[in-house]
Amino acid sequence: MAARYLWSLLLWAALLPIADIGAQVQGQVGGSVLLVAEHPPSFQVREAIWRSLWPLEELLATSFRGSLETLYHSRFLGRTLLHSNLSLELRPLESGDSGNFSVLLVDTGGRAWTQILQLKVYDAVPRPMVQVFIALSRDAQHPKTCQALLSCWVPNISDITYSWRREGTVDFGIEPHGLFMDGQVLRLSLGPRDQGVAYSCIVSNPVSWDLTTVTPWESCHHEAGKASYKDVLLVVVPVSLLLILAGLLSAWHWGLCAGGSPAGAGGKKKKDVRADEMATETENTLV
Hints:
The chain is an alpha+beta fold.
């Protein structure tokens, strides 16, 4: 009997015009959200039916003469709680829970009131990553100015808003002309007076936010003490060439010296042999 009455109410609700379209309700993945059943002050509620309309039409919770029921087979089974004021709580929220929900209220006189609520579930915003890119002045050892690009991003999150804040000043805002790519990139011109100034990238969506703070001048100072690839090559290449040339000259010099010594020794040996031959001939003559 109760089930037949329930389905009669559902069929009746499908034919009724929508009395109230509620505002969007926002929730965070892993959190909870309360769908409030609102009605006119003179409306004495006797029955209530909560349904999911989109992306799937499912029965979620009912109240008949004070008896609350939520054990209906749906993707929200085990995650619904119907309060005594007939508001429906969903927890824990999942990323696929976004959609439209309706509540049908019936008063003691048989009047009906239908309300539609739109639920949007967002992921929690992770801490953003900030990279600092530096372009130094020509005098790299003592830079007077330093052009910096600060890039901020978070992965795989939708409906994100980027903003920047200059820390330690009364006016926290950033001039719009220094922002690019919908606020993800900030361009700065820094000098020694900006040595301790920090900048924060703030990433937010409708339900959460997070930030990362960096001090760009530290990157300017760090880069100034480094030798570029060009500077390194200007020193290393000439020194290497000089070493190679010195080695070739040394080898050529020792080669000449080594070539002269054998010829002198051979001449001396030839002279000694000739002297021995002359001595032998003299001895033969005397005999």
